[in-house]
Amino acid sequence: MGDWYRDFANSGVGSTLVEQLGLPRPAVLRRHEPGAPLLTGPAVVGTAGEGRLHETVIRVLEDAGVPVQPPAATDGERLGAVLLDATGVTSPADLAAVHEFLAPALRRLGPSGRVLVLAGPPSDAGSPAQAAARQALEGLVRSVAKELRNGATANLLVVPAGAEAAVPGPVRFFLSGRSAYVDGQVVPLTATDVPAGEDAERPLAGKVAVVTGAARGIGASIARVMARDGASVVGVDVPAAGQSLAEVANEIGGTAFQLDITAPDAAQRLIAHLRERHGGVDIVVHNAGITRDKLLVNMDAARWNPVMAVNLQAQLDTTQALLDADGLLRTGARVVCVSSQSGIAGNRGQTNYAASKAGVIGMVRAWAPAFAERGATINAVAPGFIVTEMTATMPFGTREVGSRINSLQQGGLPVDVAETIAWLSQPSAAGVNGQVVRVCGQSFLGA
Amino acid sequence: MAPQTRKAAIVGGNRIPFARANSAYAQASNQDMLTATLDGLVARFGLQGRQLGEVVAGAVLKHSRDFNLTREAVLGSRLSAATPAYDVQQACGTGLEAAILVANKIALGQIESGIAGGVDTTSDAPLAIHDEMRRVLIALSSARTLRQRLEALAGVRPGMFVPEAPRNAEPRTGLSMGEHQAITARQWGISREDQDELAVRSHRNLAAAYDRGFFDDLVTPYLGLARDENLRPDTSVEKLAELEPVFGTGDPDATMTAGNSTPLSDGASAVLLASDEWAASRGLPVLAHLVDAQTAAVDHVHGGEGLLMAPAYAVPVLLARNGLTLQDFDYYEVHEAFASTVLATLAAWEDPAFCKERLGLDAPLGAIDRSRLNVNGSSLAAGHPFAATGGRIVASLAKQLHEAGPGKRGLISVCAAGGQGVVAVLES
């Protein structure tokens, strides 16, 4: 399942050849390893206008031991990240400063470098000119993401007034190797209380996490990353997948709970299990999903119904039951739902799947306020082309095209989806609620 | 001074689906299956790296290399390597006997937790070299001179190259278990129809239990098998009636067929037992307690009793010691070695003459409510990997009692080769 083209393009002969032919050269992405530094090089931090997050960002970098260089520094060292506090922009004229800061800095950005812009939300701008300037940043960041090479990414955090405390967690995520395949994204934060004292290496320590569909693929990867980050993982999958589910559970020191999540009493059985074994739950990842592809005109109920039941109805029913179960969902709970690029862009032959995955997005947005009232969050991740056993069986041409049509010119790995879900599950991600984070390398589909 | 005792808790169980012989598990050894079963239990209860008091298990058909089968399985599992283990063997009673042994140590406070299990394969069965060949080879290995070696080898005859396979036959009678049971079935006048009906009910109950998710936390799939291979949810009395008898066929009215007898099977099971405190401190459930147990044996060689009738003798002893009657149970698990074994045992308990003359009771034990018998299916449907059956029954009954609520009581009765029987009482 390796990326043969990426490996070839990075080999001695291969790199010469792809350069001469003008072919894309996908990079080997920097991915998080326990104990890895936040960045592989120094950072520069710029401001446009009178920003309010400059100090916050500097503190995050200093706490992580990242050297911060003044923007004007010109020594040869490759930068790990370029950060810009653009919360101060008040009109399009202020954007000139953005350009002035970014242009020289981006020249110095190293492999798998990070560009992160922080801006105020256009929706509560003081004037149309300010809204225009803030919105303009979105277009700028998405374009920068497309211009960057060597595995570098660019993302935008939208920070409303009062949400300053919510900034450090997301900043750390977007700088780290955890966000390797998250590119060109705009993530709005909300003002909320953020618990302090998170252990950077084990941010989920002491948490109980349920992961559905944990027996293989992306689900198994989610379970592994959750366990690595300190959570006690309850892996859930259909009884027929029990052997691999048990192997995953044993590998990560978690437990296996065989359950068909579409059974009428599934939610109650899950709740009873969580009460008995753990007394409650902190993190629920609705990952279980199936595909039954067919053009709509040829699709029968046997293909439509199970996809809806597993991918959408079970998420709704389980989440509602967890909310209703007195005291089960602990304070600061995190629910993360797996949507899909298909749910955003649509996909031929996947009306059922895309409908279910779009439904997940609607569900997350609708539930966000109720979760916020509990100090909890609910979010979705939408994976793009992720290299799994399933994609390995795709025809060669389809797979190659599918994996290249994104800014990172390669398919993502299950661990990329897992890292994003684990981040959204962290206490310090409290400010991200009701959002859809795409893990797609800035896919051209549905962008 | 008698030590204080406590009742051992049954926390839960795990088994792999049972396969028919030479089928899904044809390439799996006893050690493979037992290790996988332990690992499934570890995954269910989060026991990775845990040191338990003891693991006790066994196999009826065992290779000589597997002298330390259970300990080797523990070493291959995710349990702590510091968990001790030993093998037991009491034919088809092995699994239940193992549970009793673990429960007794917990009851005495010698251990806080343990796993009881069993495994058997009729596919990967041990073959021994011909006994005379074995003698030749032993003589050869002790020969010191060329002449002695040649003399030893001169004893080899062509017939000695035929290996000896384990037989499902009683050493002292030469009769297979089925032939023995055919005698008992005839003695008790057990009809073909009643046997077939019991078999159908076993299949239907097992299928229904799977369908309602009862086995979701009792079974872990293995090698592509997610349900017991022998299970025929759509079987019927009419279909079973078409089968030819296979045991006692010297009798024109032979009743025992492949449909109302258990098939040769492969599989493994394991049960987690513990003290209440151990379970509570780990957030683990207590499904039921093992209250008491009893074994008995009959003289099937020259005592005039059926080979598989020993449980009929063990149960009244157990009832008397616990001040119970046969009707004081919410569920009965009577191992279906053959349908006629179950029916003959029940008939014996209802028979005044048997109860008076053989059991020495003033009154018969009486009939049981048949709707409480083997409610989640038994060996006729699930299959019967000899040593794995006890663990299957203990875990399933414990869960059934737990679901029914506190204070429910269940009786287990397992017959075994050699004229033996193992019975136990569980209570939720």
From TrEMBL, chain A:
Residues in the signal sequence: none
Molecular function via GO: oxidoreductase activity, acting on the CH-OH group of donors, NAD or NADP as acceptor
Matches recorded under PROSITE patterns: ADH_SHORT
Segments forming domain Ketoreductase: 207-389
Pfam families tied to this protein: adh_short_C2 (PF13561)
Family membership noted in the UniProt record: Belongs to the short-chain dehydrogenases/reductases (SDR) family.
Protein name: 3-oxoacyl-[acyl-carrier protein] reductase
Automatic annotation (TrEMBL), chain B:
InterPro entries: 3-ketoacyl-CoA_Thiolase, Thiolase, Thiolase-like, Thiolase_C, Thiolase_N
Gene3D superfamilies: 3.40.47.10
Annotated catalytic residues: 92 (acyl-thioester intermediate), 384 (proton acceptor), 415 (proton acceptor)
Residue ranges of domain Thiolase N-terminal in the record: 9-276
GO cellular component, one term: cytosol
Pfam family of the protein (one): Thiolase_N
Keywords per UniProt: Acyltransferase, Transferase
Residue ranges annotated for the Thiolase C-terminal domain, each copy included: 285-427
PANTHER family reported for this sequence: ACETYL-COA ACYLTRANSFERASE FADA2 (3-KETOACYL-COA THIOLASE) (BETA-KETOTHIOLASE)-RELATED (PTHR42689:SF1)
Sequence similarity: Belongs to the thiolase-like superfamily. Thiolase family.
Name of the protein this chain belongs to: Acetyl-CoA C-acetyltransferase
